[in-house]
Amino acid sequence: MRSVIEAAGADISARFGHVGWELGETIRPREASRIGEQLGKISGVLEAGVSPAGFVRVEFDRNQIDEPAVLTALERLGLRQKNAAEHDHGPGEHDHGHGGIFGSWTELIFALGCGLVLAIGFAIEKLGGSPGWIPLGCYIVAYGLGGFFTLREAIENLKARRFEIDTLMLVAAVGAAALGAWAEGALLLFLFSLGHALEHYAMGRAKRAIKALSKLAPRTAMVRQSDGSTREVPVEELALGDVLAVKPDERIPADGFVVKGSSAVNQAPVTGESMPVDKRAVMDDDAARANPDRLESAHRVFAGTINGSGALEIEVTKLASESTLAKVIKLVSEAETQKSPTQRFTDKFERYFVPTVLGLTVLLLFAWVVVDEPFRASFYRAMSVLVAASPCALAIATPSAVLSGVARAARGGVLIKGGAPLELLGSLDAIAFDKTGTLTKGAPRIQEIVAAPGIDKEDLVAVAIAVESLSDHPLAQAIARDGRDHIGDRSIPEAINIESLTGRGVTAEVGSERVLIGKAEMFGTEGIDPLSAPMAAAIEKLRAGGFTTMVVRRGDSDLGAIGLLDTPRESARDALAQLRKLGIKRMVMLSGDHQSVADAVARQVGLDEAWGDLMPEDKVVTIKKLRSEAQVAMVGDGVNDAPAMASATVSIAMGAAGSDVALETADVALMADDLSHLPFAVGLSRSTRRIIRQNVFVSLGVVALLVPATILGLGIGPAVAMHEGSTLIVVFNALRLLAYRDRTASS
Fold first, then answer.
1. Which end of the chain is more exposed for a tag (fewer CB within 10 A), N or C?
2. Are residues 308 and 455 in the same domain?
């Protein structure tokens, strides 16, 4: 049985299903991967990691390990339980403002103070004429200001039996003081503390971009009472079925459907759509209430979106904690726990590199035995190498880019679930598209009705409506919706015992007879009689015109065929052209329709390859074949295409804002039902992948330069300057992703 504990790096109140923890002020970025790695080594822990929001998430098997054992492990890593009564704010509301006497700026102010006092002491020492204890006093004060946070973190690390960069810097500074090099030791602490503070500030920008999502939804809502009046209530207290009154230009407080009024709603905060979407009231409240997930987008609204000029009344269909926005915030905040291939490589590299550096440092401590030099010189050189070789920049190189990339994607209406799909999306060579609902609008319309000889057309359509009204397939919904326009006042018979014939059609009982509706290929197989000659000819004619066809048979008689047409998306051709410019070499359309229908749609959207007549299991085989040749993504709706999507390198779901299944299962979710967001996602991931490689190159390059330089005599001060400089370079380089421009939108 699985169980999960979430622990925060800042002190939070205990909540249902969660435990509040603290580690200093926050879990520092460079510690995140190590904490997850150490937790992951415990037998019974299934998954462990640290999110950008500062949460440690531990998933464990309760049959192998109990909760107290996990809590003990967390304590050993330096996290201690906080009394829930001490704070009453949740993790989403905690601003980490109590970092010291100056709030969140304390570390930066201490670092700048260290530099100022160091400069004063150095100036006094060089000018001369003053007692020697004055500059020494300045250096000691500089040590206190620059080493305060470093010492605090070193103590926490040692309690958790970790020996990390903070501890190394402190040892090097103490060593410099022991050798009488107070100014150099103070310079080391100044540069390190300043780099640390700026690093936290820079990473905080990326975290704030994610936390800003949680502020999109209003905290209160106006609920319509039975007497027509309204009452203001917190969104957490909203119940399913409540009717909300939303004024013009207000944010919508909850997911639901429109029951009164019409307006244009700006959905950009959730879906990234550049233009407002027209919304109108549903025709039948009861029908909408019975199955809200099947409603058209014109009736559905999401929490956090902005109402236009018209007043709306909205019936709530999801609680605040289950809204689309809430799911996006949760998934984005957990995104960093899914490591990218580069992150896994750097983690593995560090496991071998750090012990090697420590061994080299020990050898250098005894260089005076071999080389004619005092122990002081050997000790100083060893400390310099230890500082220079610390893989600080490498540890932050990938997480900072992933965090920025995921935050930028979310702001553009694309949900990317972590470093692995983000980096893999940027390595794609091929993309496979499902036809219905992806390259086409997914709203087919009845275009042709061909009745068999001697059959009344209205009788044919009435039987089809009776059966297809019980199915949720897009083609079935189209027949049930449009068919009523073709039967006038004719009554619809009752259908019962519907059964899905996956990938082929459906069967049900109407009256005392069995009715089959589905593809022409279904007839003549598995004991089903083949089509009559007139019906086979009608099917060929419809398919030649590019229609998707459905045959209706009642008992032993063919009633006729219905030809449907699904309009290609206007954005499809442009989106595919953009993908080609981004370097996608191969794009394939997969469809269960007849090959001639698939070819007709492919020509309209500008695709060269279209594979038709595919059953769901055939799509899986096709994706596996494509994956054996190249890195391939599968784009679908996340529901009907789930098996094929699961077989792809990256699974991409469209229109995920209206589908909980798509949000939970896809690696990448395009929140809007708009294919033009796909080039943005691919372009962003390619930029992220490029920046990750740049960061790794800078990180390893600086270490490769500094280690031999310090061995040959480079001092601690210059080594720290370059070391911390490289850390800031990789962080600020990663932050460029927050300003990534959606060129597809501008074009």
1. N
2. no
Cα 188 versus chain centre, distance = 38
Q: What is the pTM of this model?
A: 0.67
The Cα 60–Cα 50 span in angstroms is 15
Same domain assignment for residues 28 and 135: no
CA angle 302, 13, 58 (to 5 degrees): 80
Separation of alpha carbons 215 and 10, rounded Å: 19
- Chain segment 433-486, per-residue pLDDT in tens: 988 778 887 778 888 999 998 888 899 999 999 998 888 777 888 898 888 888
Both structure tokens of 86? 């001490």
pLDDT value for 97 = 35
Are residue 232 and residue 180 in the same domain, yes or no?
no
The label of the residue with tokens 């990326």 reads: 206
Span 316-331, pLDDT tens digits: 998 887 877 777 777 6
User: CB pairs under 8 A, 24+ apart, for 318-321?
Assistant: 318/240, 318/254, 318/255, 318/256, 319/238, 319/239, 319/240, 319/254, 320/217, 320/235, 320/236, 320/238, 320/253, 320/254, 321/236
Token pair 């030649």: residue: 544
Q: What is the pLDDT of residues 198-245, one digit of tens each?
A: 766 666 665 665 566 666 778 899 999 888 888 999 988 889 999 999
User: What region, left, alpha or beta, does residue 541 occupy, with left being phi > 0 and alpha being psi -120 to 50 degrees?
Assistant: alpha
Q: Pull the structure tokens for residue 458.
A: 């209205």
Do 112 and 201 lie in one domain? The reply is yes
Question: Are 569 and 440 contacting, i.e. CB atoms less than 8 angstroms apart?
Answer: yes
36 vs 34: CA distance, rounded Å: 5
Instruction: Name the residue with tokens 């937790």.
Output: 39
Which of 363, 255, 369 minimizes the C-alpha distance to 314?
255
Residues labelled as active-site residues: 434
Q: Are residues 38 and 175 in the same domain?
A: no
Q: What integer best gives the mean pLDDT of the chain?
A: 79
Which of these, 725, 716, 28, lies nearest to 387 by C-alpha position?
Answer: 716
Q: pLDDT-derived band of residue 259, with 50, 70 and 90 as boundaries?
A: very high
Q: How far apart are CA 535 and CA 520, in angstroms?
A: 9
By three-state DSSP, how is residue 483 classified? helix
The arithmetic mean of pLDDT across residues 294-307, rounded, is 85
Q: CB–CB of 423/688 below 8 Å?
A: yes
* Phi, psi for residue 509 in degrees, rounded to 5: -105, 130
As a whole number of Å, the CA-based R_g of the chain is: 32
Asked whether residue 206 falls in the same domain as residue 342, the answer is: yes
| Contact between 518 and 471 (Cβ < 8 Å) | no
Q: Residues 401-423: what's their mean pLDDT?
A: 84
Q: Tell me, yes or no, whether 12 lies in a domain.
A: yes
Which phi and psi angles does 283 have, rounded to 5°?
-80, -35
Using alpha carbons, list the distances in angstroms from residue 660 to 6, 327, 640, 654, 673: 22, 9, 13, 12, 14
Return the amino acid letter for 477.
Q
Whether residues 367 and 232 fall in one domain:
no
d(CA 517, CA 550): 6
290, 322, 354: which is the final residue of a domain? 322
Whether 585 is covered by a domain: the verdict is: no
Q: How far apart are CA 721 and CA 711, in angstroms?
A: 16
Quote the distance between the C-alpha of residue 22 and its chain's center. 25
Q: Which domain holds residue 47?
A: 2-86
- Residue 247 CB-density burial (10 A; 0-12 exposed, 13-18 middle, 19+ buried): exposed
454 and 546, same domain (yes or no):
yes
DSSP-H helix ranges across 582-676: 595-605, 616-629, 642-647, 660-665
Cβ atoms within 10 Å of 183's Cβ, excluding its own: 20
